[in-house]
Design goal:
The protein has 424 residues and is α/β, with parallel strands linked by helices. The chain is built from 14 helices and 16 strands.
Length: 424
């Protein structure tokens, strides 16, 4: 969305080093008598072994490598590493992206979906971070450059990126994005009329052609939308998922069934929608001392943006969440960080609270931030706790399957079997 992305692009950040990491002497850990949320369900009294970057064993009776570091599990829950299904990264300088992903990891977000980037050299830099997959930063999946019309979002703020105007240009556009390193396609289907002056946007035929071109190359296509009209148009054009739900005082009563019939997933991004409606989470974060310990000063600024009166209504979004849940539509947890009122990592925990308040159970919200996101973005090596998966896991005090706020009570984070030192 224009204001959010423009502000994110203006973040000026400076050099930083990656978080130092801690490992057991032989790289092995054992967490005993721990509650496990495995990405789908909860099991009590489990023992989990982490070894050589993978989850080596899960169960009540397992073989533990000699010398494995013992971690107490009583009263705690082990979860798959959390995933933020919608972020953006600072463009300048290069190290700003690393620090953003470092902060995400400190909050237990072991994988982040980068929902749009620019320009070409930025995509190349981000691809380097993705391929290195350092244990010190959140892993990324990269949507690359947006598909949008000339003068359309997000170019209205001065961003210079390739655009297209007709269905016949779609195949070449998608081929160019994949050659740059994009893992999926993000399509802008939003004229911004719901929030202010109208801007150009792609027509339905061009959106459908882009989807066809992405699918022909084995990639998914996700649509940025801003209102229900654009959401329905994107779904009808064949997209795999929606980035954002829509604002408004109410929505159509059949939207959930419509989405289910077309087998899409939805990333509601309630945190940023509520900020658009004048209810940002940022002021609340600023009063949380434990949260702010993990937020670097350069990413504090977006939390400090004051709430402004807004005549945009947001009741339609939680209404749509309830419909989507009832219809069995996969919901993914995403934040649109660093949009005003949000920050990397911390905002995902608040997004989970918003999803529960909108009608999801705590367990369903955990699914939205783990296995559902892994499935939607075709990541088969993470998102669940089971033998053979990547050891991207988070240990928390309490039981977030009953009290979603317990996801904040982080005891330890591992990425690829390396334990992260949570300090800046």
């Amino acid at each position: 969305m224009s204001i959010r992305f423009a502000l994110a692009c203006l973040l000026l950040v400076f050099a930083t080093s990656l978080l130092p990491a801690q490992s057991a002497v032989n790289g092995a850990y054992v967490i005993r008598n721990v509650r496990v949320f495995n990405g789908d369900t909860v099991a009590e009294g489990q023992t989990v072994v982490i070894n050589e970057g993978q989850i080596a064993a899960v169960g009540t009776t397992v073989t533990v490598p000699a010398g494995a570091q013992e971690i107490a599990g009583e009263g705690r829950t082990l979860m798959p590493g959390l995933m933020d299904a919608h972020i953006h990264l600072p463009i300048f300088p290069t190290t700003g992206a690393s620090e953003a992903l470092q902060q995400s990891l400190a909050f237990g977000v072991t994988t982040s979906i980068l929902m749009g980037a620019a320009p070409n050299q930025f995509v190349a830099r981000i691809k380097g971070l993705e391929e290195t997959d350092s244990p010190g930063i959140s892993a990324i999946v990269n949507a690359g450059i947006y598909a949008t019309a000339p003068g359309g979002h997000p170019t209205q703020g001065g961003l210079s990126i390739p655009t297209l105007t007709a269905p016949g240009e779609a195949d070449a556009f998608v081929a160019a994005r994949l050659a740059e390193g994009s893992d999926l396609l993000k399509i802008i289907v939003d004229d911004l009329s719901w929030m202010g002056p109208k801007v150009p946007t792609l027509d339905n035929a061009t959106v459908a052609a882009l989807v066809t071109a992405a699918h022909a190359r084995g990639r998914i296509a996700v649509a940025h939308i801003g209102d229900e009209r654009s959401a329905r148009a994107a779904v009808a054009a064949g997209v795999d998922g929606l980035a954002h739900l829509f604002v408004g005082s109410t929505g159509s009563p059949d939207f959930g069934q419509f989405a289910a019939q077309h087998r899409v997933f939805v990333i509601p991004t309630l945190s940023v929608l509520y900020a658009t409606c004048g209810r940002p989470d940022g002021p609340g974060f600023l009063t949380e001392a434990e949260t702010m310990k993990q937020v670097t000063p350069r990413f504090r600024s977006m939390l400090e943006i004051p709430s402004r009166p807004s005549d945009i209504r947001c009741e339609a979004a939680p209404q749509a969440v309830r419909q989507l849940v009832a219809a069995g539509v996969p919901l993914l947890a995403g934040t649109d960080a660093p949009a005003p009122g949000t920050t990397y990592g911390a905002s995902l925990h608040k997004e989970l609270e918003h999803l529960v308040a909108a009608g999801m159970t705590p367990t369903a919200a955990l699914v939205a931030a783990t296995s559902a996101t892994a499935m939607a973005f075709r990541m088969t090596d993470r998102g669940r706790i089971r033998a053979g998966m990547r050891a991207d896991v988070v240990l928390v005090d309490g039981d977030p399957s009953q009290r979603i706020r317990d996801t904040r009570n982080i005891v330890a984070v591992w990425k690829r079997g390396v334990r992260v030192q949570r300090a800046f």
